[in-house]
Amino acid sequence: MPTQPRLSVIVPVLNEASTIQACLTALLPLWVCGVEVIVVDGGSVDDTVALARPLADRVLVSERARARQMNHGARESRGEHLVFLHADTRLPRRADLLIDWALKGPGCWGRFDVTIERSFVLAGLVGWSMNLRSRLTGIATGDQALFMTREVFALVGGFPDQPLMEDIAMSRLLRRLSKPVCLAPRVATSARRWQQHGPLRIIVTMWWLRLRYWCGASPWTLAGEYTDVR
After folding, report:
1. CA pair distance 167, 215, nearest whole angstrom
2. What global pTM score does this model have?
């Protein structure tokens, strides 16, 4: 029987034909080191699945919803540790060793600092503020590539089944078990949504949605107002 991989990378996707090859090609150095790569498609109507198959260990299909896709991928994966990666985000070099080191201490989960591609003036400031907020609150977002042990993923029951803010909800669950390990090496995430909708609009929208979520608004209600729900 094949040796259990130390790390599984779970990539939820939906109509990512324009980005999936670049995403998985960037993971090839980890793949050849024994890292398992699993893509979970939520019902794409483009060529995402066909383009992903040659570059991943497995390409799965699940119900559309990022939380459900990530949970399905985690259940089907074999790694001792799990990292959840957006298709437009790139891990730092030897992320497998960084995650392995991070999870050898008392922390059972964590995330990376993030940098946004510098395609708009405020990109550096936005990335810096995301990292600072995460350190102060112990809450991580999906753009920061959440990672955790398989055991703790199972212990909390996976990502809560909700269409938005699933990363914040998961962080709340994990934070009860340990503080997050905040790794300074940075993941790089695309600025495409900032370019599409405008930086100011994205900042105001996300802060408004998060404030309402913290105040108890239903994620299903908020999802209907968010134009980039996956």
Report:
1. 17
2. 0.90
pLDDT (tens digit per residue) in 67-97: 999 999 999 999 999 999 999 999 999 999 9
Question: What is the Cα–Cα distance from 191 to 117, expressed in whole angstroms?
Answer: 6
Residues 143/187, Cβ–Cβ less than 8 Å:
yes
CB 183 within 8 A of CB 94: no
**What 3-state class would DSSP assign to 82?**
strand
Whether the CB-CB separation of 155 and 202 falls below 8 Å is answered with no
Q: How many residues does the chain have?
A: 230
For the stretch 126-167, pLDDT in tens is 889 889 999 999 999 999 999 999 999 999 999 999 999 999
Q: CA nearest 26: which of 216, 187, 203, 146?
A: 187
How far, in Å, CA of 229 to CA of 102, rounded? 30
Q: What domains can be seen in the chain, in order of their start residue? A: 7-196 (3.90.550.10)
Residue 10: predicted pLDDT: 98
